[in-house]
């Protein structure tokens, strides 16, 4: 009788392998899966729907392997240009990889111009979503190329500075089925372009005209859109209350309105808008007006279904909080950042009725103390995000209440809350689902408090310890063993950290963003210990790290192939030539990953070297 076992893969059908593959959510798990054997790599190639390319050099090979893509993201390949697209279409049969492609992200692809864009659009006939945001050189010719996507449903053109009314006209004529359009920072677009848009694209459900120089005449045109649900016009200086009055009787399906930083809009104008849309779900009027009118307070009584209200920068009162509490029982998010007049009593009144709140922003509400936080913790048991930056009166008692009642908490900002100490962090560590914790300028915490967090908050992705002067190597050792999923860490001016701490950080293999500014005790030895293990670093701040010399940067250039930005104070030509030489060596060895850019500050400014 044979004792040889049958390989498990030989008894699993392709259908079963595909089902197993679909259960893998984390990128690291999917990577491990496809590296096991050729069969699992083949299954991954068949089932992958989304591809984010980090290096343009691998684009041709990847598109040959992944032929069933729905989404292609090239936003981190700024060096892509017309020649790249021409070469791609020449060497890879686009009828295979482009046939199912629905979403294309070309954000920041500044090298791509009309010719390349026209070729790409021509090859991808089924595109429904395109993102060309921050392609600052895009103009009307590029807009004309995009107009070839007749089936386009979504288009993002944020900060395409060269696109004017002419380019927008070409798009709306060619893409009449648009449902979502973002024109943020497209400064050459005027009321004329918006008017034509509203006549041609009657299917629009989302429109963003933030920071455009449009006037209230544009709102007259927008009011005619029968299906518009979400309108954003942040920072439009020429829009006033008259424009909001146009919207009062238009846009019957409107659910979300964002007029933040519109200086000419008052609470009276917003009241008129609310009067015609009592079914609003989301209102953002942050830093829009300083005083709340009685009519606005009265109108909030109609907002029975309101989920979000952001009124950052207004002068609050107990009256408005009581009104919101009594009428807006469905409220999930409230923004009160930098609001004067926010008191403990006002917050207690607010949360007594709004028990479903999940996101609360009290940044710079300096009168808030433990009583308010205790009320929030007791009433809002499903709280996910709480921002308390510069609320100096809160102490460990607040964290004790959060640790007892808000076990679902994911984001907590305690920046510049001087009353927070190690005892408070011990209580907070009961919130084991924390993803983001900001403790910058909390000078009373130490390694002991960090140990409590690291012991229980294993899901932590982001941690800010800016200028926490009592944090040292011991705290980093605890982080490295307990918070393996940490991706973003700020240790700037944590002056007790040494090379030993850097060695500990090397065990955080998911780390991508790291700020080490002002750590004058770390040397090239510590930097070497860090970068030889943290292969995913994309951003690194080394300003004022005086003891790191050229040997440290040599190791950095060799091991950190995904780095996109390095900040450093000192600079010499020898270092520049060293970096260039190492990148050249990478190409010679056919290791095509290389630094896209190194940002080095010199003499008070920043210079970019490619």
TrEMBL record:
Native source organism of the sequence: Populus deltoides
Alphabetized InterPro entries for the sequence: FBXL15_LRR, Leu-rich_rpt, Leu-rich_rpt_Cys-con_subtyp, LRR_dom_sf
GO biological process: SCF-dependent proteasomal ubiquitin-dependent protein catabolic process
Annotated GO CC locations: SCF ubiquitin ligase complex
Lineage, uppermost ranks: Eukaryota, Viridiplantae, Streptophyta, Embryophyta, Tracheophyta
PANTHER family: PARTNER OF PAIRED, ISOFORM B-RELATED
Domain of life of the native organism: Eukaryota
Pfam families, per database record: DUF7885, LRR_6
Domain F-box/LRR-repeat protein 15-like leucin rich repeat positions: 383-479, 481-565
Protein name, UniProt field: F-box/LRR-repeat protein 15-like leucin rich repeat domain-containing protein
């Amino acid at each position: 009788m044979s004792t040889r076992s049958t390989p498990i893969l030989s008894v699993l059908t392709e259908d079963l392998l595909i089902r197993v593959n679909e259960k893998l959510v984390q990128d690291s798990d999917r990577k491990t899966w496809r590296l096991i054997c050729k069969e699992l790599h083949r299954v991954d190639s068949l089932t992958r729907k989304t591809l984010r390319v980090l290096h343009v050099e691998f684009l041709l090979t990847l598109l040959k392997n992944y032929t069933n893509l729905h989404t292609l993201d090239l936003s981190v390949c700024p060096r892509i240009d017309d020649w790249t697209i021409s070469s791609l279409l020449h060497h890879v049969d686009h009828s295979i990889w482009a046939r199912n492609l629905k979403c294309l992200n070309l954000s920041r692809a500044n090298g791509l111009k009309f010719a390349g864009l026209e070729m790409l659009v021509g090859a991808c006939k089924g595109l429904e979503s395109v993102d060309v945001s921050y392609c600052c050189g895009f103009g009307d010719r590029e807009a004309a190329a995009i107009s070839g996507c007749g089936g386009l449903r979504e288009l993002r053109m944020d900060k395409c500075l060269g696109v004017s009314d002419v380019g927008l006209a070409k798009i709306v004529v060619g893409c009449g089925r648009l449902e979502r359009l973002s024109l943020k920072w497209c400064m050459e677009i005027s009321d004329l372009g918006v008017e034509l848009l509203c006549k041609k694209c009657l299917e629009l459900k989302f429109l963003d005209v933030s920071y455009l120089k449009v006037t209230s005449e544009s709102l007259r045109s927008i009011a005619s859109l029968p299906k518009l649900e979400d309108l954003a016009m942040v920072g439009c200086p020429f829009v006033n209350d008259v424009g909001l009055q146009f919207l009062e009787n238009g846009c019957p399906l409107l659910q979300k309105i964002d007029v933040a930083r519109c200086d000419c809009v008052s609470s009276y104008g917003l009241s008129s808008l609310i009067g015609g849309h009592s079914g609003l779900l989301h209102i953002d009027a942050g830093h829009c007006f300083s005083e709340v009118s009685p009519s606005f307070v009265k109108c909030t009584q109609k907002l029975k279904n309101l989920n979000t209200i952001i009124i950052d920068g207004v002068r609050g009162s107990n009256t408005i909080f009581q009104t919101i509490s009594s009428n807006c029982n469905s409220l999930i998010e409230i923004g009160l950042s930098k609001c004067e007049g926010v008191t403990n009593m006002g917050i207690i009144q607010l949360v007594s009725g709004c028990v479903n709140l999940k996101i609360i922003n009290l940044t710079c509400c300096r009168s808030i103390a433990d009583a308010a936080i205790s009320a929030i913790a007791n009433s809002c048991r499903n709280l996910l995000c709480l921002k308390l930056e510069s609320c100096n009166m809160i102490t460990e008692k607040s964290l004790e209440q959060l640790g007892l009642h808000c076990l679902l908490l994911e984001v907590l900002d305690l920046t510049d809350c001087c009353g927070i100490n190690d005892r408070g962090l011990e209580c907070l560590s009961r919130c084991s689902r924390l993803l983001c914790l900001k403790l910058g300028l909390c000078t009373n915490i130490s390694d002991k408090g960090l140990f409590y967090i690291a012991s229980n908050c294993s899901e932590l992705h982001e941690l800010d310890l800016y200028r926490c002067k009592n944090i040292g190597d011991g705290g980093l050792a605890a982080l490295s063993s307990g918070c393996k999923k940490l991706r973003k860490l700020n240790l700037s001016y944590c002056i007790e950290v040494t090379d030993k701490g850097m060695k500990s950080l090397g065990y955080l293999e998911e780390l991508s963003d790291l700020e080490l500014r002002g750590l004058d005790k770390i040397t090239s030895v510590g930097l070497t210990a860090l970068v030889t293990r943290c292969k995913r670093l994309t951003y690194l701040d080394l300003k004022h790290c005086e003891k790191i010399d050229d040997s440290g940067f040599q190791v950095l250039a060799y091991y950190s192939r995904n780095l996109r930005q390095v900040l450093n104070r000192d600079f010499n030509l020898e270092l520049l030539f060293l970096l260039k030489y190492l990148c050249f060596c990478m190409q010679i060895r056919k290791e095509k990953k290389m630094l896209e850019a190194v940002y080095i500050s010199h003499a008070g400014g920043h210079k970019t070297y490619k």
